[in-house]
Amino acid sequence: MKKIKAFAVALLLFILTITGIHFYISGKLNLNNRAYDYWTGEQKLASTQGIQANLNDNSIVVFGSSEFQHGTNSKYHPKYVFEGQDLKPMLIGGGYYQSLSHAITLGAIEPGMKNKKVVLVVSPSWFKKQGVDAKAFVSRFSEEAYINCMANPQVSEEVKAYIANRTQALLKDDPSALIRMQQYDAIRSGEGVYGGKRLFLQLYERFLNEKSRFGTIMGAASQGILRQKQDIESISGKSIDWASYQEEAQQDGARLAEGNPYNMIDRVYRRQIAPIEKQKKDSALKRSYSKSAEYDDLRCFLDICNDLGIKVQLVSLPVNGMWYDHTGFPRSDREQYYENIRQIARTYHVRLADLSGHEYTKYFFEDSVHLALKGWVYLNESIYNFAEEA
After folding, report:
1. What stretch of H or E contains 177?
2. Long-range contacts: 198-206, Cβ < 8 Å, 24+?
3. Most buried in the list 239, 247, 257, 346, measured by CB within 10 Å?
4. Cβ contacts of 369 within 8 Å, gap of 6 or more
5. Residue 113: which region, alpha, beta or left (left: phi > 0; alpha: psi -120 to 50)?
6. What integer best gives the mean pLDDT of the chain?
7. Pairing state of beta strands 59-64 and 88-93?
8. What's the rounded Cα separation, in Å, for the pair 213 and 203?
9. Cα separation of 201 and 299, whole Å?
10. Pick from 3, 44, 27: nearest CA to 218
């Protein structure tokens, strides 16, 4: 009897502790700190609750990939360009995040979005024949985001079916997650999963939610992103002088990117490119981005935007033309890829910031694909102009 009482007391204390942590953390998710918006750590990207809590009327969600993690100390990175502005770009993405992951995240966070505009920065390297690599997708897959996306009543069943089928195909390298998502889908569709399994999944979902909240707070704290009590000051109505930024980028480029034949930042060229330069000569003669499973994933992203009534801008990034010429990647195939993106934008009647004409623009790239200097200025300006549109 004493053991039973002791167990009951321990269980009650455990429940009270968990409940207390839940309410404490929930109230701390809104960090009121712009550093959170530009942070691209896994704890943030896996937490749809954390993202939602840090969105406001001035936020614009910007989806992308590894470019967000390059040039983070440069004055041309969004976190510095938009400092002091009312506009708050919420960056979502990093290496191996592509259209499908972003579609899932968008479906999950949409109920918390005040501003129904998003930007998707489209990278050519996503469009390999098989599309997103299965192992890469698994490494970035958020079960919490998937569950919340599938629970969004505004997302059509057709889009949910595509997401479910594509996700299940890509989760082959994570059989445990695959089984859980199959069971969640079965519950959602009313096909079954009863008794203990259903209870387990419900408890597991709550666990994911608590893990997400805790991860957001602890991850942000580890980056020095602490909650600010007072409102963030902004300079409302102050426009950005993009011409001045371009002039500065030109001057900085002459200093930082004149020691190599590929318009790259010199230190990046010396460290990463020069050691492989000879072996990469004509290594991509048979490469192509013109046919890829990624195109359907991109269409899925745009379909979910339509379902949710979200206005979207695609940004079509170029590749570094001088380096891609060196590797032998056919220029005609690159042009076909850019035209494919234009056609999709026309079909869906979405705004397109087409930067594909900058393959050979000096001081546009850090390396073979990532932005630097002028590249960041063009991207930031496209985000700003879209956000300012009525």
Report:
1. helix 175-189
2. 204/180, 205/147
3. 257
4. 67, 123, 124, 125, 317, 319, 320
5. beta
6. 90
7. parallel
8. 16
9. 31
10. 44
Provide the token pair at 204.
């597991």
Q: 157-170 and 99-109 helices cross at what angle (nearest 10)?
A: 130
What is the C-alpha to C-alpha distance for residues 186 and 188, in angstroms, rounded to an integer?
5
According to DSSP, residue 75 is labeled T
Indicate the residue type of 84: G
Q: In which element (H, E) is residue 165 found? A: helix 157-170
The 10s digit of each residue's pLDDT in 207-242 is: 777 887 887 888 888 888 888 876 655 555 578 999
Residue with tokens 């569950």: 147
Look at strands 117-122 and 351-354 and give their pairing.
Answer: unpaired
Three-state secondary structure string covering 252-275:
HHHHHCCCCCCCCCHHHHHHHHHH
Query: Would you say 160 and 150 are in contact if contact means Cβ atoms under 8 Å apart?
Result: yes
pLDDT (tens digit per residue) in 341-361: 999 999 999 999 999 999 999
* Cα torsion 301, 303, 309, 314: sign: positive
Residue 23: in which H helix or E strand, if any?
helix 2-26
Instruction: Please give the Cα distance from 25 to 217 (Å, whole number).
Output: 7
- Cα–Cα distance, 151 to 48 (Å, whole number): 13
Q: What is the distance between the alpha carbons of residues 372 and 381, in angstroms, rounded to a whole number? A: 14
Q: Distance between CA 321 and CA 335 in Å, rounded? A: 11
Q: Which two tokens stand for residue 271?
A: 């460290």
Report pTM.
Answer: 0.91
Question: Which segment of 35-44, 177-186, 316-325 scores lowest on mean pLDDT?
Answer: 177-186
Q: What is the DSSP letter of 86?
A: S
Q: What angle (nearest 5°) sits at the alpha carbon of residue 155, between those of residues 151 and 158?
A: 110
CB 383, CB 120: distance < 8 Å: no
Evaluated on CA atoms 160, 118, 83, 94, the torsion sign reads positive
Residue, of 256 and 16, whose pLDDT is higher: 256
Q: What's the token pair of residue 356?
A: 């594909």
Q: How many CB atoms neighbour CB 148 within 10 A?
A: 24
What residue has token string 């009525």? Answer: 390
Q: What token pair was written down for 148?
A: 């919340």
**Residue 342, number of CB atoms within 10 A of its CB:** 15
